[in-house]
UniProtKB/TrEMBL annotation:
Cellular compartment(s): Cytoplasm
Gene: bioD
Organism: Streptomyces rochei
Catalytic activity annotation: (7R,8S)-7,8-diammoniononanoate + CO2 + ATP = (4R,5S)-dethiobiotin + ADP + phosphate + 3 H(+)
Residues annotated for Mg(2+) binding in this entry: 16, 50, 109
Protein name according to UniProt: ATP-dependent dethiobiotin synthetase BioD
Top-level enzyme category: ligase
Family from the record: Belongs to the dethiobiotin synthetase family.
């Protein structure tokens, strides 16, 4: 799996911290890692973006962006309003393919959800995954409402012939409510793919050393971690 695309069912659900956890776990396994942000929005020219946050938390990764725009909007909208060239799926795929010649693993993080538009032609992260032939890891919220958006995204991936290896909960609450605990059983069902991890809420606030040592315990063996979905579900069962 030299390239792994990471998307979510929406924004602000933990994609960047999951990307950092996957990167940290791969680094701990002795692999070289690059992180590519397809389109960074909402930051100025000299401000740190998501790729740099991944590098801060995970450690020795190559951090790169294809494009960035100052307003916190969908990339196509942000590019248009800023008078800047939009990012095209082919640009992202070519950047990822180049990084893959120099690294064991390339993580391509999207912006928002799978079908957020990059350009006026309607290009999306799903198109990037298709060009690369890369699997797409889906990051989801824990609580009420997640089943619908998870199933919709999973169906879209399959309609395009894209591989969904699994789902990771981006922010597992310290005191999960009934919906979150029930979703541990329901998410794999609606996604048609296994749960591959649950990152605890507030993980990004950990010191980097603590984040790196903890990350493998949040992810399943398929992502080179030690997290066990069955054990976790039994512990959190309603």
């Amino acid at each position: 799996m030299p390239v792994l695309v990471i998307t979510g069912t929406g924004t602000e659900i933990g994609k960047t911290v999951v990307t950092a956890a996957v990167a940290a776990t791969a680094l701990a396994a002795g692999r070289s890692v690059a992180v590519l942000k397809a389109a960074q929005t909402g930051v100025g020219p000299d401000e740190p973006g998501d790729a740099r946050e991944v590098a801060r938390l995970a450690g020795g990764v190559t951090a790169a962006e294809v494009a960035r725009y100052p307003e916190p909007l969908a990339p196509a909208t942000a590019a248009r309003r800023a008078g800047l060239a939009p990012v095209r799926p082919r640009d992202v795929a070519e950047a990822a393919a180049k990084l893959a010649t120099e690294h064991d693993l390339v993580l391509v993080e999207g912006a928002g959800g799978l079908l957020v538009r990059f350009d006026a032609a309607g290009g999306t992260l799903a198109d990037v995954a298709g060009l690369l032939g890369a699997p797409v890891l889906l990051v989801v919220p824990a609580g009420l409402g997640t089943l619908n958006t998870t199933e919709l995204t999973a169906r879209e991936l399959r309609s395009r012939g894209l591989d969904l290896p699994g789902v990771v909960i981006g922010s597992w609450p310290e005191a999960p409510d009934l919906a979150a605990r029930c979703n541990l059983a329901d998410l794999p069902d609606v996604a048609g793919a296994p749960l591959l991890g649950a990152v605890p809420a507030g993980a990004a606030a950990l010191a980097p050393a603590a984040f790196r040592s903890s990350a493998p315990h949040w992810l399943a063996p398929r992502l080179e971690g030690t997290w066990d979905a069955e054990v976790f579900a039994r512990r959190e069962a309603p």
